[in-house]
Amino acid sequence: MRVTIIGAGYVGLTTGLALAFLQHRVTVVDKDPARIELLSSGKSPIHEPGIESLLASLGPEVNFTSDTRAAVADAELIMIAVGTPPKTNGEADTRYVEEAAREVAEGLRGGRSYTLVLKSTVPVGTNHLVANVVQQALQDRGVKTEVHLASNPEFLREGRALRDTFYPDRIVVGAEHPKAIEALRGLYSPILEQTFDPPRFLPRPEGYGLPPLIVTDPTSSEMTKYTANAFLALKISFINEIAGLCEKVGADVVEVARGIGYDPRIGHGFLGAGLGWGGSCFPKDTAALVSMAQKHGYAMPIVEASRIVNQRQRLHLVDRLETILKRVSNRTIGVLGLAFKPGTDDLRESPALGLIEILLERGANVRVHDPVALENAKRELRNDRVEFFRDPYAIAEGADALVLATEWPEYRSLDFERLRTKMRSPVLLDGRNFLDPTGLRKAGFVYIGVGR
To answer: How many CA atoms lie within 13 Å of 217's alpha carbon, on the beta-carbon side?
Structure first.
């Protein structure tokens, strides 16, 4: 199938490369010439496991361009995967989606049939809005052509985006016209039937079955994406709230989560207490859901509470650190990890940055390390009291405390005795309950977990 993807971010790039690997003829469009130049030379603008390996294996099989109109003319299926950043009121801003739809319509040829797919996370009703934008643009041009719209939300996890594309839990399609449904069924048939030979670096998971194709109406499809992210955010906030009570009564939230997770109605996933959630989806999508509800005169106190608990976590952890150190003002705090999660260099709404902001407000001096996100962090953390280090041991030199903020696997293999000998006081706050408390205490650390 001839496919054009609008947007070369996490979603668009991952989807485009995966579809090209499945032997569709793919063109990826992005407005940023530097990004297009980078991709054309085989380099990825984002840190995502497997992306550059896939780029190298595809070579000329996938094309990159900044010209939307030229890229869509001969396409059979066009997918919009541009950003929907939050407005000041929390509502998702669809201007880039509308702009992309308008440019797509300006490049479509008369007498053809196209399927236009919204992959971006968009508010309920955006499919109808885009349909009007496209029809108006075609009318202005005096062009008659068939355009069938579909909603096809993404459920990709950064750091596992290619795995989630090739081996999804489900594929959701919201469409009103049978041609749009059949086009997406055809597009994804190698994934739905698992008939493709997997990439060498990403074998098919043992025991993986065939993913279901869920066909519904566009509005329900749009709502499914927001609901999924809101529920996962709720689950993390819930265990963080329980963690706070565990600290008061002397229970261990890790044991509590283990005990409840075996109940199949609950499950173990997203029950890790810690610094809270961040990233490009949970903060934005929960805010958009609340804003959407307000527009319809409907309250969502549970979703709102999850956001409050999430923000409270960072304050709570700094308060615990302050209790141990007596004060953080003029203290030197080393922070291990800056990305919002391991496996990515994405700093959007990173809990680590939120924690650092509070430390700076309270007068601390901060040293930071991250395996891949350090350069991005230099653009975000512009403060004279923040120092950046490529060596994780260097941040411990004369430090009053260390905080583990992102659970990068390499942090588990650090020589903690070596770290301790460099520090002014051996305090370690494990903001992800990721490290071994017994081993750290044996190494001479005052270990502080979350809910432990």
So the answer is: 5
- Confidence grade of residue 59 (pLDDT, cut at 50, 70, 90): confident
**pLDDT tens for each residue of 158-180:** 999 999 999 999 999 999 999 99
Tell me which CATH homologous superfamily contains domain 282-448. Answer: NAD(P)-binding Rossmann-like Domain (3.40.50.720)
Tell me whether residue 246 is one of the annotated catalytic residues: no
Q: What is the pTM of this model?
A: 0.93
Q: One of 82, 118, 243, 281 is an active-site residue; which one?
A: 281
Summarised one tens digit per residue, pLDDT across range 138-164 is 999 999 999 999 999 999 999 999 999
For CATH 3.40.50.720, the residue range(s) in the chain are 2-216, 282-448
Give residues with Cβ within 8 angstroms of 383, minimum separation 6. Answer: 360, 366
Please tell me the distance from the alpha carbon of residue 31 to that of residue 319, in angstroms, as a whole number.
Answer: 44
- Polymer length in residues for the chain: 452
Query: What is the Cα–Cα distance from 46 to 93, expressed in whole angstroms?
Result: 23
CA atoms within 13 A on the CB side of 259: 7
Query: What is the Cα 17 distance to its own chain's centre?
Result: 18
Q: How many other β-carbons are positioned within 10 Å of the β-carbon of residue 247? A: 18
Determine phi and psi for 88, rounding to 5 degrees.
Answer: -65, -25
- pLDDT tens digit string along 214-266? 999 999 999 999 999 999 999 999 999 999 999 999 999 999 999 999 999 99
On whether the 2-216 domain is CATH 3.40.50.2300, my answer is no
Distance CA 370, CA 404 (A): 10
